[in-house]
Write a structure and sequence with these properties.
2 domains; six-stranded mixed β-sheet; mainly beta; 157 residues
Length: 157
């Protein structure tokens, strides 16, 4: 059931305010204060409210008043944009492994790139350290011969 606000004319300019059957104030309000009083009540109720104006001549004006929309929440203070960490300068790392077939393609995991074995089956791979994970643990490099299946694991120091 909707809240009911009744403004009853007491004389030409004064109105008694009744909310859900209970007189709101000891003193009547002026007609010029209807807007302010009604806005305060409907905002407090926060739901549509039936409003009636009972005039001295017996006429009744009625309406349903919607509450004002809730205030917009304060925007969150903008977080300062963090500058991305400066990229460190490339630093090479080398891994030497024997046992591959001459000319064999070698997969290198953290698969950052592919290399080829030389005519003697030796492979040397150059890695950009910025492509490798950071952290206290040593980085392990895995190389796999795609034809021979030869696998080599080496710690990158």
């Amino acid at each position: 059931m909707l809240p009911l606000v009744v403004f009853e004319a007491d004389d030409g300019d004064r109105l008694v305010v009744i909310v859900d059957g209970d007189k709101l104030a000891a003193a009547p309000v002026r007609r010029s204060e209807i807007g302010r009083v009604l806005t305060e009540l409907v905002t407090k109720f926060a739901v549509p409210t039936r409003v009636e104006l009972h005039e001295l001549d017996g006429s009744v004006l009625a309406d349903i008043v919607q509450p004002p929309p809730p205030p917009e929440p304060e925007p969150e203070p903008e977080q300062p944009i963090e500058e991305p960490a400066a990229r460190r300068a490339p630093e090479s790392a080398e891994v030497d492994v024997d046992g591959f077939l001459p000319g064999e393609d070698i997969a290198v995991a953290v698969v950052a790139r592919h290399g080829s074995a030389g005519p003697d089956g030796h492979v040397q791979v150059r890695l950009d350290r910025s492509e490798l994970p950071d952290g206290p643990d040593p980085v392990e490099i895995i190389m796999v011969g795609r034809v021979s299946g030869t696998t080599a694991c080496r710690l990158l120091t």
